[in-house]
Specification:
This protein is α/β, with parallel strands linked by helices and 275 residues long. The protein has a single domain, classed as TIM Barrel. 42% of the residues lie in helices and 11% in strands. The protein has nine helices and eight strands. Strands 2, 3, 4, 7 and 8 form a five-stranded parallel beta sheet that branches. Helix 6 links the parallel strand 5 and strand 6. Helix 2 runs parallel beside helix 8. It is globular.
Length: 275
Amino acid sequence: MLVSRLWLLSAFTLFATSLLRAQDTALSPPPEKAKSAAPTEPRISFSSVNVDGPYIAMTFDDGPSAKLTAKLLDLLAARHIKVTFFVIGENVVQHPELVQRAAREGHEIGNHSWSHPYLAKMSDEGVRQQLQKTDDAIKNAAGTRPTLMRPPYGSLTARQKKWIHDEFGYRIILWDVDPLDWKRPGPTVVCNRIVKETRPGSIVLSHDIHPGTIEAMPSTLDQLEAKGFKFVTVSELIRMARPESPKAAPKERAATPSAIGSPAPTSTITASPNG
């Protein structure tokens, strides 16, 4: 009799355990499916480009200048080098033949505003007029509308970048190499700064309105070429863009007394007054 009762008790225990497990399984939520990564929005602003190769873009702002831009075009033609000019609308109207020549010889023409104001401090309508008048002037001179713009002084808010891109279709182009040629330090200094700071994918800022800059270009271009760099327009450089490699997380290490309290280094792009 005792054996029968023990057997029934064991059987009941097993049945209850199985029932509880079945209920837990039924109540457990199904495993979540892996969420697909949200599509990334196309990049609209560039100060440099991640490229697979020694490609760089030379850019020249604030022209065209009757004498200096013509001289620059001559030396570029002699070296079969293509660059990008960010032109001022007022100057385009005064010298449309230079813009026409630059476009005909394979250079790229970008919008640098009508009169070089601080766009970040202007109303949307004021910015729109600056860009549209210059856009029209470039179209009249070169036959095609620009697809790039560079804000004077590199000054543009994030909101402005978005609506300008949406309305005009422009990519916003800044720079990662600035020889500060607007300070007129002399051709040798301009050359040395550009050659030292340029890396694959660099967008180099210069101005074709300063005599020293034009004087620096023969040596600058020759030295860059000797280092293996190849010259392309900004749009060509962007078309070569490769995805950025994910950076490995730095390994943690014990802090040393000299490291405690040391500020991390920061990097900023300083806009040239004539940028």
